[in-house]
Design a protein that fits this description.
This protein is α/β, with parallel strands linked by helices and 373 residues long. The protein has 15 helices and ten strands.
């Protein structure tokens, strides 16, 4: 089970493409001990009911390392709670931790703690300094790269996953930025587009050669069995080759996850999280045992998204691995609704799938020449 805790809506950065600009506008809410403890008790209840064999707790925000002491407290409480409930949990039950961080508040103390507790780390890093500082800025408008740089070796040692965001302004040089990240020693990189409504045909034209270069990096890594993982390329290929659906294999909306805001409200996905009154797609509250999260009932629009394909996408060959069709959070933050499809996302997915298919076919022919294609 994946438990995702929004432990703070405060952040020391003001990234230009932050998708929490409006939902976390006040940047003041913090999760209390009471919410945290109630959430973990609910998680254990769900684990027992659904026979999960693990609990993976991810801390995010805002910037979660603003509350390192709270993270430590949560880790301690979760271990105690799991020990107390050992008799009703599976014998092979495992507890794990992860954190999403912008990296600017890393310290020797934080690194030591993350290593000791074997944290998974998701690090926001857009590439070398000039590129990173285009969008990842502090409240006074200055770049944030210099605060991260001293801890890059430690992040490599922790095998952090690098999260890179691409905007129309930063599309050129994307592949070189990926190469730079890999050169630092990282082996796992995920790139995502900031679908902010301003992408033009020219921007997508510029993106095509960058994705082709990335696909070649992926192809070379696979040929050499180097262990490099580029999720942008790999995931699109894996879903296709395994005959799966993105909604079922990579989306946790409605199953296998519990996402909690600072005030205890629960949501189907981290992209929806907000402590603001009237936030859409709230599934319940950890203090309300009569709410949907306890009863396993989702908001009607969320359930409809899970149960039905989009009529406008009928007949599209890539719809089951397309974010426009399969990813509810992508629909939400690009259109404001689970019901709509973003033309930008649709265009992007067609471009990416075509390139991924080309290089997947090329790799299969090289690795398995005996097969008939």
């Amino acid at each position: 089970m994946n438990l995702q805790l929004s432990i703070t809506e405060c952040c020391n950065l003001r990234c230009r493409y932050c998708y929490y600009k409006e939902s976390h506008k006040d940047r003041s809410a913090n999760m209390s001990d009471e919410v945290m403890e109630a959430t973990l008790r609910l998680a254990v209840k769900k684990i027992v009911e659904q026979n999960h064999h693990d609990l993976n707790i991810t801390f995010f925000g805002g910037e979660p390392l603003l509350r390192l002491d709270f993270i430590k407290k949560t880790v301690k409480f979760s271990k105690t709670l799991i020990k107390e409930n050992k008799a009703i949990l599976p014998k092979d039950f495992e507890l794990g931790f992860a954190v999403n961080t912008n990296g600017t508040l890393l310290s020797d103390e934080a690194i030591k703690f993350l290593k000791r507790e074997k944290f998974g780390v998701f690090l926001s890093l857009d590439g070398p300094q000039k590129r990173h500082d285009l969008a990842r800025i502090t409240a006074d408008g200055s770049g944030s790269f210099k605060a991260i740089a001293p801890y890059i070796p430690a992040m490599v040692e922790l095998n952090a996953i690098v999260l890179m965001v691409v905007t129309p302004e930063s599309v050129k040089g994307l592949a070189d930025a990926v190469k730079w990240v890999l050169k630092q020693g990282f082996t796992r990189v995920a790139t995502t587009l900031d679908f902010n409504g301003s992408w033009t045909g020219e921007d997508f034209d510029a993106l095509i050669p960058e994705y082709e270069k990335m696909a070649r990096i992926w192809y070379k890594a696979k040929m050499e069995d180097s262990g490099i993982y580029l999720s942008t390329i790999q995931d699109k290929i894996s879903v296709n080759l395994l005959g799966e659906r993105e909604k079922e294999s990579m989306c946790f909306i409605g199953h296998g996850s519990l996402v909690v805001a600072t005030n205890g409200n629960t949501f189907p996905c981290t992209r929806f999280v907000s402590s603001r009154k009237g936030a859409p797609y709230v599934t319940g509250n950890v203090f309300d045992e009569q709410s949907g999260i306890y009863k396993g009932v989702l908001p009607k629009e969320v359930q409809s998204f899970l149960d039905h394909d989009r009529k406008g996408c009928a007949g599209c060959a890539i719809r089951y691995r397309c974010l426009a069709h399969e990813c509810g959070c992508t629909s939400f933050y690009t259109t404001g609704s689970l019901k709509k499809v973003s033309p930008e996302v649709c265009t992007h997915e067609r471009i990416l799938c075509a390139i991924c298919d080309e290089y997947a076919d090329k790799l299969l022919r090289q690795k398995h020449p005996e097969r008939i294609f």
